[in-house]
Design brief:
Blueprint: E1 2-6, E2 21-23, E3 39-41, E4 50-54, E5 64-67, H1 80-93, E6 98-104, H2 108-119, E7 123-130, H3 144-150, E8 154-159, H4 160-166, E9 180-183, H5 191-195, H6 198-204
Parallel strand pairs: 6-7, 6-9, 7-8
Antiparallel strand pairs: 1-4, 2-3, 4-5
């Protein structure tokens, strides 16, 4: 199995200049979406490469390409950082000094959020869902928890049952009273959320 890398410049692709605040304008055909972000914070190595995979026994006239978002950055690798570039810019613009988010005990989103917050000198509060029997125990240092603790994230555990009972809106009571930005990502998609992945789609347009 062999791979070939597709490279491109992309007029609208976000160049990498770490932690730089950059203006953002959606494509003309997406200007009706609301709300529209005005800026992004550069957190990722974009555009990520596109690799053509020469797989054996493919049907005739079939090609397989991989979008390598695992190469978007080290601790922030994966597609999670694409959304965080917009959301963290919004948090900073709102004057937040901490970030609150929720996820599973090994959530990649929570790990990426904690690292991004550390880069931006923001405190992070991670409310992690786990089983009822483990909620009062130390979650340890395995997997994403190691990275989260290394960057100083404040970790609080919640049982899946309690989360289902009180919902995401009331979970902020677990966090000290201070300016915060909530990255729950649980509400129905809004115009902004659609725009977050447009850059990725535009990068794919460079496949020959």
């Amino acid at each position: 199995m062999q791979t070939q890398t597709q490279t491109h410049d992309g007029a609208n692709a976000l160049s990498f200049d770490f932690l730089t605040k950059k203006p953002y304008a959606p494509p003309s055909w997406a200007t009706h979406l609301n709300p529209t972000p005005s800026h992004v914070l550069s957190l990722a190595h974009l555009p990520t490469p596109i690799h053509k995979w020469n797989l054996p026994n493919l049907p005739q006239n079939t090609e397989v390409y991989l979008k390598r978002d695992d190469l978007s950055g080290m601790q922030l690798s994966g597609n999670k950082v694409r959304k965080l570039e917009f959301l963290m810019a919004e948090a900073v613009a709102q004057g937040a000094d901490c970030i609150i988010t929720i996820g599973g005990i090994q959530s990649n989103h929570c790990r990426a959020t904690a690292v991004a917050a550390k880069y931006l000198n923001l405190d992070s509060y991670l409310i992690l869902r786990t089983s009822k029997v483990l909620v009062d125990q130390d979650p340890g240092l395995t997997g994403n928890l190691l990275v989260e603790r290394f960057v100083g994230a404040n970790i609080q555990l919640i049982s899946k049952e309690e989360y289902a009972r009180i919902g995401s809106e009331d979970l902020r009571i677990k966090v000290p009273n201070r300016p915060f930005y909530r990255l729950m990502m649980l509400s129905p998609p809004k115009g902004r959320d659609v725009l977050l992945f447009l850059a990725n789609g535009l990068e794919l347009s460079f496949i020959p």
